[in-house]
Amino acid sequence: MTSPFRIAIAGLGTVGGGVVKALAARQDELSQRAGRPLLLTAVSARDRKKSRGFDIPGWSDDPLALAKGDADCVVELIGGDEGVARQLVETALANGKHVVTANKALLAKHGKALALLAEEKGVTLKFEAAAAGGIPIVKVLREDLIAHGVDAVKGILNGTCNFILTEMERSGRGFDDVLAEAQAKGYAEADPTLDVGGGDTAHKLALLASLAFGTAPALDAVSVEGITHISADDIAFASEFGFRIKLLGTARRVGDAIDQKVQPVLVRASSALASVSGAANGVLVDAGEAGQFFFSGRGAGEAPTASAVIADIVEAASGAPSPVFGRPAAGLTALRPADGKAAISPWYLRFEVLDVPGVLAAIAGNLAEAGVSIESMIQRGRAPGEPVAIVMITHETAQAQVERALKAIGASDKVRARPCMIPMEA
Amino acid sequence: MTSPFRIAIAGLGTVGGGVVKALAARQDELSQRAGRPLLLTAVSARDRKKSRGFDIPGWSDDPLALAKGDADCVVELIGGDEGVARQLVETALANGKHVVTANKALLAKHGKALALLAEEKGVTLKFEAAAAGGIPIVKVLREDLIAHGVDAVKGILNGTCNFILTEMERSGRGFDDVLAEAQAKGYAEADPTLDVGGGDTAHKLALLASLAFGTAPALDAVSVEGITHISADDIAFASEFGFRIKLLGTARRVGDAIDQKVQPVLVRASSALASVSGAANGVLVDAGEAGQFFFSGRGAGEAPTASAVIADIVEAASGAPSPVFGRPAAGLTALRPADGKAAISPWYLRFEVLDVPGVLAAIAGNLAEAGVSIESMIQRGRAPGEPVAIVMITHETAQAQVERALKAIGASDKVRARPCMIPMEA
Fold first, then answer.
1. Residue B1 pLDDT more than 60?
2. What is the pTM of this model?
3. Which residues pair with A9 in a beta bridge?
4. For A138-298, CATH number?
5. Residue B51: how many CB atoms within 10 A of its CB?
6. Which residues in chain B are contacts of A275 at CB distance < 8 A?
7. Nearest chain A Cα distance for residue B215, angstroms
């Protein structure tokens, strides 16, 4: 065997702890796979005194010291798109060290610049754990589904949202109720905005789009809508139509532009994505002539995320450095955003209206004026005096048209709250 | 860019043609990914005069000449576990050339010896296309799901069988009828034995087991049962119980032994594997603590298989040679076969019996004697004089026990044909 591969880990939270434990448990096997001994030589975390259940070698209070020590590879598990994490990754790369990270925000924002730096220094920058936890979708897009191009990537990339939506469907409860339970159980953060607002999915989608299309990660070009407005009614109505509501990150080629969207979508109950339940993740890749491929599994948590980090470490130790996004970073083109509002699909529409004569006629009139035609409709009675839910499924229509109609409808004083519109799989 | 990577292809059938076309269509992009120009410099196939719709460079009538020429990488797409294919791969490796192959039979039989040769010569031997077509399951097992070990791999690995079973379910027709149609349409070979008999799945399973468990491929230790005895009735009954019948290749760890089986299995209709329909493939990996991961897509055909071959070529061109089965070949251990008949599951049993008094009592008696207890039963009436189908689902029972009972039951002159037994997912 050749010289050892020295590993320094910054951040010993859930994932960092999982990496340390898995490395220790399979040191010999993983070293054989890497072709050289894997040695954890340094770590840095916030609290040295915390009891972790494993030995800590080479403690450093300053994470940046790891980028300046004798490590061959720095594993960044601090998080955040600026600050210490960015400084650590930049310094490590500049000092000719390989970097493995789970930091989606950092890569989504500074991916191209960091890739350029890594490639200039002849080292590798790997981020499998940043996209879908244990599902090796980064490598699949970077190295496997490359022969026929990719037309679209669609993913359930946030386990918290999928857990909430699954639990809402299972129990019939509302969003707030299920979120509170998820928070109590530790499945959702105290401030859940990044998850339920769609931001986390957007970070991950920007990375997958870059890998799929050879464009620099373009987080700002992702249109983002979360799941906070999804009601128990929406989920029940979707189910009646044979659909489930999932928060999808979708990146697809539209001519020479790319449409990147994070939004709730009604997916057919029989589809692969609909089968992804609870905190799992799932990704569908439309690889042109080669057809569709689907990947699912655990997208977060200690072991699945550590699994991705360790695969990256072994590859960094064993392989020749390959381009960070599959193609030389200098050649990553600027993503040209497609007109997202031109996207055509059937739509699920829900209106909460006062139960007075003429309301349905007014809504139907506004839809007709915008050229939106209705495929089916459910109107459900409530107790006297309560608002009535009207749900419609449209024929295939451009988003802009539906928005125009809903703006007119929302202006009526007979319509309560903002009408809800969710695209459906055709 | 560094020196070009010279590629020689032996075999220009469906897959070979697909590789040539995809290489030509994306030469620049694939060369960028590889970090060096990819050049197709030589080919060999049976019939030079055949019109193929693409240009043929460097024709050679003798495939073995490719192993002696100036190619950096030989792509073997001839097939067969001996003869020219084996000679070509051995000679190419011995001459220090990388080899990419789709040849499952060759690898399943001679995998360890070939891997030793490749590693001795410092070249790579890649076979992504040999397992599940476009699904990158070889790489996933070799490089990704490595941190927590693998407890089991289950796959639908033969598109022809899955097409037949799906079509039998959809149409209610019998095996022979659907097979004949599949042959007429070119989905099944004139001699379908290797597919419907389970042999092809066994080849692929032996490779996946090797990657998953660090054992040398052990084809002889795979217990193989095909789908020729599955009737339209079995599929209909399974459906009544909420199951589908799939031909699965399963390799699982049992203590320090490995159980490798190819057999029809009743999988729950709601499961990921049940959702794999038509000619698709699907693989479920139980990666210990990291959880279950599922992968599906097209497992055969021109573009999906070419996709896998091209990913291997690009990796051979760009990467440092890594161990063929993920770990140094010298360390691949001899697989210790588990006692397959000790496998415990519920069982689907079907008996065709004469409609005379006492038959059910006799069957029930034989089952009880062998310690097999029944969870549910369906008996279906037929026209007078015709045999009656009795279907039973057992509680969890070892295979050996069920076989013992069925041997006794089959000896009765009231039971027509061999009783059918199929394991079920618990």
1. no
2. 0.96
3. A43, A75
4. 3.30.360.10
5. 6
6. 270, 272, 275
7. 13
